[in-house]
UniProtKB/TrEMBL annotation:
This is Patatin-like phospholipase family protein. Keywords: Lipid metabolism. SUPFAM superfamilies: FabD/lysophospholipase-like. One of its GO terms (biological process) is lipid metabolic process. It comes from the Archaea. InterPro entries: Acyl_Trfase/lysoPLipase (IPR016035), PNPLA_dom (IPR002641). Residues 12-210 form the PNPLA domain.
Length: 326
C-alpha cells in the first residue's frame, strides 16, 4: 500500500502476441483471484492485439460484476477462441505449419488476405466471440462513471502514426483493428482511415496510462510481457533469427516507454521535477520466462492455450509472492 495506507494505484499493460497472450489471461485470472480493493486501486489497463482482448475482458468484467466475473469472461473468451472441430483443427495445423516453414526460410507464395475468404471468416469469428461476452453498446454508458482507463493500441496505416482508442471509443472494430495482422487479416476502417495490428505500435500502450494528474497517476505499473526480453548467444539459423526478430519488434516500443518512465522517476528523485506535480511510478514486469517458436503465435490448439494460461497463473503467483515479501 501507499504511505497513507490507501490502496496502491495500479495500472496494467498487456503486451500483444497472438495466441501467446493466453499467458496474459492466466496472469490476469490469478491476479483477479487475489484482488483486494483495500490493497489495489486499478486506475487503468491497456493492451494491443491479443493483449487488448484480455484488457477489455478484465475491465468490462470488473465494471459489470466483480473479480470472479472478470475471470470468467477471460476464461470464456479463450475457450471459445480455441480450435473447435475437425475442420478447424485442420485449418489451425495448416496455418501454424505455413508460419513455421516461412520462418525457416522456405519460399511461401505470398497472397493478400483480401484475396482469400478464410481471413474474413477468422475476423468474423473473433467478432462473434468478443460480442458473446462484451456488450460494446454499453461501454459509453459505463464510462460515465468513475472508472479505470481502458486503452487499445493500433497503428493508423494512412497517417503512419500510433493511434489508441480509449474508454468510450473502444468498439469491437477498434479491438479487431488492434489484432489485424497484415498478412492474416485485412485492415479495419475506423473514422475514414485504416488500421493494422497494435504490434506495430505501442505494444502495449503505456504513455496513455501515465497521462494522469498526480493524484490519479499509477504508483505501480504491471507489465505483462509475452516476448522474451533477453537471448543467450547469437542467432545463426534462419529460424532462430526470424524468431528473435519477432521478439525484438514486439519489445522495442515497450522498452522505449519504460525507459522514459524511469527517466521521469530519476528527475523526481533528483528534485528536477516538483513532486507535487509529478510522482514516481514503480515498474514491474511479469514475464513469460519461456521461449516458444514464433509460429505458435497463431496456434489455437486448446492444450497449448491451457498450457500458456497455466504458465501465466504460475508467473502471477511468483510475482504476487515477491511483491508481498518486498
Amino acid at each position: 500500500m501507499s504511505k497513507d495506507s490507501s490502496p496502491t494505484r495500479v495500472a496494467i499493460a498487456c503486451q500483444g502476441g497472438g495466441s501467446h497472450t493466453a499467458f496474459t489471461a492466466g496472469v490476469l485470472r490469478e491476479i483477479l483471484a487475489h484482488w483486494d480493493d483495500d490493497r489495489y486501486d486499478l486506475v487503468g489497463i491497456s493492451g494491443s492485439s491479443g493483449g487488448a482482448f484480455n484488457a477489455l475482458a478484465m475491465w468490462y468484467g470488473l465494471l459489470t460484476g466483480d473479480a470472479d466475473d472478470a475471470a470468467d469472461i477471460l476464461e470464456g473468451i479463450w475457450s471459445d477462441m480455441a480450435v473447435d472441430g475437425p475442420s478447424d483443427r485442420w485449418l489451425n495445423t495448416w496455418v501454424t505449419g505455413l508460419s513455421r516453414m516461412e520462418s525457416a526460410g522456405f519460399a511461401i507464395p505470398s497472397v493478400s488476405p483480401s484475396q482469400l475468404p478464410m481471413p474474413e471468416l477468422g475476423k468474423q469469428r473473433i467478432r462473434t466471440v468478443l460480442e458473446r461476452y462484451i456488450d460494446f453498446e454499453t461501454i459509453p454508458e459505463l464510462c460515465q462513471r468513475d472508472v479505470p482507463d481502458l486503452v487499445v493500441g493500433t497503428v493508423n496505416i494512412n497517417a503512419g502514426v500510433f493511434e489508441t482508442f480509449t474508454n468510450e471509443d473502444v468498439s469491437v472494430e477498434a479491438v479487431l483493428a488492434s489484432a489485424a495482422v497484415p498478412n492474416l487479416f485485412e485492415a479495419v476502417e475506423i473514422h475514414g482511415h485504416y488500421h493494422w495490428d497494435g504490434l506495430f505500435s505501442q505494444n502495449p500502450p503505456v504513455s496513455d496510462l501515465m497521462d494522469q494528474p498526480p493524484g490519479c497517476k499509477p504508483e505501480e505499473l504491471w507489465v505483462i510481457q509475452v516476448n522474451p526480453q533477453t537471448f543467450e548467444g547469437e542467432p545463426t539459423t534462419s529460424e532462430v533469427i526470424a524468431d528473435r526478430r519477432n521478439e525484438l519488434s514486439g519489445n522495442i516500443s515497450l522498452n522505449q516507454e519504460l525507459r522514459f518512465i524511469q527517466r521521469v522517476n530519476d528527475w523526481v528523485e533528483d528534485g528536477k521535477l516538483p513532486d507535487d506535480e509529478f510522482t514516481k511510478t514503480e515498474v514491474h514486469r511479469i514475464e513469460m520466462g519461456k521461449r516458444f517458436h514464433c509460429s505458435t503465435k497463431v496456434d489455437r490448439d486448446p492444450v497449448f492455450l491451457e498450457e500458456l494460461q497455466e504458465l501465466g497463473r504460475e508467473r502471477a503467483q511468483e510475482f504476487l509472492g515477491h511483491r508481498d515479501a518486498a
